[in-house]
Design a protein that fits this description.
Its cofactor is FAD; (6R)-5,10-methylene-5,6,7,8-tetrahydrofolate. The chain is mainly α and about 450 residues long. The protein contains 20 helices and five strands. Bound molecules: flavin-adenine dinucleotide (FAD).
Length: about 450
Amino acid sequence: SPVIVWLRRDLRLSDQAAIAEAAGKGPVIPVYVLDDETPRHRAMGGASRWWLHHSLASLDAALREKGSRLILRRGKCEDVLPALAEETGAREVHALHHYEPWWRNAEKAVGKRVALHLHHGNYLVPPGAVTTGAGAPYKIYTPFWRALSERMPPPEVQPCPDAIPAPESWVRSESLADWNLLPVEPDWAGGLRDAWEPGEDGAHARLQAFAGKASRYREQRDLPSRDATSFLSPHLHFGEISPAQVWHAMAGAGGSVETFLGEVGWRDYAQNVILQFPDYGGKSAREPFDSFPWRTGENAEADLRAWQQGRTGYPIVDAGMRQLWHTGWMHNRVRMIAASFLVKHLLIDWRRGEQWFWDTLVDADYASNAVNWQWTAGSGVDSNMFVRIMAPLSQSEKFDAAAYIRQWVPELADLPDAEIHDPAPMARPADYPSRLIDHRAARERALAAWEQAKD
Ligand code: FAD
């Protein structure tokens, strides 16, 4: 009897244990279920939907080359999958593990109604498996990474099966176009189309391009003006490439690559935090943040909008926020600066920023997003740094962001390097906003808020 492969954010054919396993058992029915109900407010945001559309189209094309195809269905997974099993006579569903709390619940619910076989492969080590000597999960990255490194290399990469056996006849599939995952009016996705090639081929092209410059990674990864990082984050998020594939392609190439693999390790670390604290995306881990005097009301909302639109008057922040809007991605150093600015300079609840990133990032990832926002805010299990307030202007200078600012904030393009990070009021072009708040005043306000929250 046929075997169903339930695909989620593991949209690849190679090193995909669920497909490999199913292909060895009988005719395979690969299915993607668009389920907005189970994740509820955590349903995918706009940029992720854009990516998903193209990634599903690419996966279907790759499956067709193997004599298979992708079946699309909509609804709650725990209803759709058992119904599909009944319709096709399938007795087993194979899938990769996912660790977002809603997916773990869905796996339980599906497993009650059909035989669900879950496989590993979206993390270097299965989340939860790396523990301290006493068997406790790690809360801090550095010891976690040390312990994880001892378990490397990850298992050998499995190639895609030569053929994926097809059932005698195919069941009905919904049409991808009917899912309306792409923006209609206004079509804001032009910048995304220019910047990305979703799908497994696009992922491997990125990996290859990165291999050629990986030796400069350690030295340049913090410089937003250089394209020194891998741009693999959306591909890893959607599982178009596995971290084991990345590891095996890169490992052993020297110190710079070790630094890079350590970053890939952050992705594993973040998922380990979520396994321990499933609500992490909506709940601060430290107590003072339960009663933090975040700004609310009309002025705060106007400031939030200015931040979202890249009109804060701080060039590095504005460049980052505009890069995000245009391409669905932002350089990591600038994500830290922009996030810190929202939380500390504007005193706006980190969850508002997390939500904006969730909607606009093509790599929006529940674990990585929440862990990095809480780290920046100082509210996380791994950080207590609210009082360390990043100075956006000196960060911009230190990390040599002039060319980056010129690219994303064209109003400032004519300013010399010495002025572009912090244009004097007289030097500001008329169409560039003045600062929402002065740095020193913001610092004092933030420290006072922290004192109040602590008491
Ligand atoms: P590279 O530097 O080439 O790193 C390789 C891979 O390692 C990345 O593709 C990513 O999978 C992983 N990685 C690198 N840094 C981190 C990190 N700090 N945390 C977790 N994984 C990491 N990353 C996401 O994938 N999704 C998010 O939703 C996300 N939200 C973030 C929010 C904030 C406020 C901050 C400060 C960072 C966030 N990051 C997120 C982490 C990081 O910025 C991106 O992973 C990175 O910029 C992606 O670019 P790259 O693929 O070129 O990274």
